[in-house]
Amino acid sequence: MEEKINLKKIKQMVKETEGITSVDDLLALSKANDPFYIQDNAIKKAEWFAEVWKKEGWDKKYEEWNRLGKPQDEKLKQEYLIHARDFHYTILGCGYTITTKDGIIPYENTDSCWSYLQKGCKYAKYLDLIPYDAIRDEQNPDPQNVPKYWSHDQFEIKDVTIYDDIVELELPSLNFDNVDEFIEDRINNIMDDLFKWVEYYPLSEQPNYLEIWAEKKGVIPMDVAEEFNTTVRPAGSGEFSVDMCFQAVIKAKKENKNLHIFMLSDFDPKGRDMPKSVARKVEFVARKLRVNAFVHFVALTKEQCITYSLPTVPAKIPKTNSSGAKGYKTHTEIFKNYAGQDPTELNSFKKREPNVYRDTIREAIKPYYDEELESKFDDEMDRLRENIRTKLEEEFEPRKDEMEKIRKELKEKYEELNSVLKLIIEKKEQEFGLDELKERYAEIVDFNVENLIEDEEFEVPEAEVEDRDDALLDTRRDYLEQIKKYKEFDIRENEGKNDE
Question: Domains in the chain, please, with CATH?
């Protein structure tokens, strides 16, 4: 089992790992944002948020929502879960305080207090101090096209009727013209009895749970998502929340599948950072829950912009002179040096090259989805049905002569019996020995179907998908290998180097 990676472990690795000179070498994001490096001040914010959340009684409301089965009705969600911004206004004037570098101050309606609450909420989820879904995420829309994985109603031997009465009670006669017709009917009845409740769901055997993420709405081709039974998650305002990462990983764990996320973002400073940011958050949750998770950057890349001569848009220039704005300007300059052009939107790829755009996404997903699995299930079901039918036919074959002999005698007796008045039918049946003949016939016709086909079973076809090592995130890598992959992806880390 891989050792848990946290601030303490990372600092230890800096001392013990050859070639590592600082903490930054072991982080994919900044110290303030990397979930593997939650510092003491972040822990304090998380503990503060969790404490206030409980004092306001939202832990009890969450427990009730959980007891109800976590209903997704919007009215109920608003009753049992609170949104972060609503929480901010709820606790104003309630005597709560926060600890800052300037000391203990009242929680007030300021940007700094609001930022403190947001960070506390995020870190509280990372540290499992509150459930990840305890705070309503109204920033991002609900996922679409979420597949359902049904359990199989597997093949098993039911109560099978082989022999039933071969005469009609009111007007005695044989039900079938000949033995072959009788046998065909009985085999069909047996097959119906065996398979009438059998249901297999090929999608449930796909080893991978797939999601397409995009930084904006309207750029994910739904026909591709439906083709591969892929969940769609567009970001509501260009940001992917921690909640979305938790939801995707937990869904994969619940279904006992690998998680593959396919990322779509603009070719601009923010869009270039987005896949790594998502990958890191997903990695944190996936390693914690022991889920194999993969993040694939599909579009928009520098190569795609050049190959298809996609139009650009000027980079936005921040109007403020804050540290964040300065950092963005620096990153914009690094991006322009790397890209050799202004930013490009996903929409330009989607609109100018719609077929290529869809095929690019389709080709990224195809290796991880067995498109032939449904036909494999059909073939296996056909094979099983044919095997059982053949065995039934072979079992009836040596009985046919004796069956025909008795049927002939029965027919003669019934022809004679039909000339007798209805009032004495029962007496004549006994006199002619029909009961004995029918019993003998039943003994010949009847056999144990369970014993006959006990070695037959439906062999669930195995999905065939590729196992590649080119994903931006692959949680099967150890921590250092994954950090190396992030560094290779980050244009800041590779400034001045040749773009591969």
Answer: 38-136 (no CATH), 149-206+370-460 (no CATH), 207-368+469-489 (3.40.1360)
